[in-house]
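Methods — Computational structure assignment.
A single polypeptide chain was analysed. Its primary sequence is given first, followed by the predicted tertiary structure written as structure tokens.
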Amino acid sequence: MDLSADKRPILVVGRVGMDVIVDPPGTGVGEAKKALIDIGGSSANIAVGLVKLGQQASLVTTVSDDAVARFCVGKLAEYGVDTSHIRTVSGECRTSLAIYDSCLETHTNTIYRNNAADFQMSLEDVAEIDYAAFRCLITAGTVFAAEPSRSAAFAAFEKARAAGLPVIFDIDYRPYSWPSPEVAADVLSRAGDLADLIVGNDEEFGFMAGDYGRGLAKAKALAEGGRTIVYKRGPEGAITFADGTEIATGIYPVQALKPVGAGDSFMAGFISGLSEGDDLRAAILKGSACASITVSRPGCAPALPTPDDLTEFLSSHPGPTGA
């Protein structure tokens, strides 16, 4: 997949939320005396990560009519993400809130998503977008977990494909967002069928296959349909399937502070690499380096690297495992 031919912005569909990050690192949520606030949410993190790496990105979502949402939208704009496709909804829906610490061994991450505002994204929200103004569409699986957001996301996929945009899908399965595993498996599989590039870990592909032991087979089967598949294997790195080839890549080991944010940072780094003309292997390794940087810092959006961060990290790191 060549995303370097034009420099149009990247369209990212999905949620933004407020992150409350216990400070200093090593302090558990239950013992916290102070905290930092910033933004999070898988799609918002991807958009911020892309912008911090020099790309242009626009986020499509809905937020609540309150101070938390105003903070989130303002922070997105501060990072440089286009917010013109974010709609405010009234009523009792609320923008997501996550409270977590930077303690790897005893990590606590509490997410409040009752009556989530981002699930109110509608067909009208995605219909008004000029898809030809964008380079590709990216979303994460959470956007499909409830209606009307699910139907809107499928409509966005169809409109993007009709406009000739590659559709990039991070499976990002979060059980707490779904009414049942059966619904999730069906919907995520249908979303995968419409995507050109799919990123997921071994458990997520196994979940789509209906058998955790068949994740690799599912990834290979999806690749046979002409898609590019990034099959992440945690500390063992990733296998990328594309055009009948398999590319194995390692990771950049670091002393992690927390487990959250790695997948979003990986996606931002990977797509940024492809946008800059990197081949698949180089782009995957860029994503892996970004993920390692992010988990070694507090927070999600503020931990996402810039090009200078990436250069400094790569110059001092001995290299990926298996290299």
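Note: The mean pLDDT is 95.
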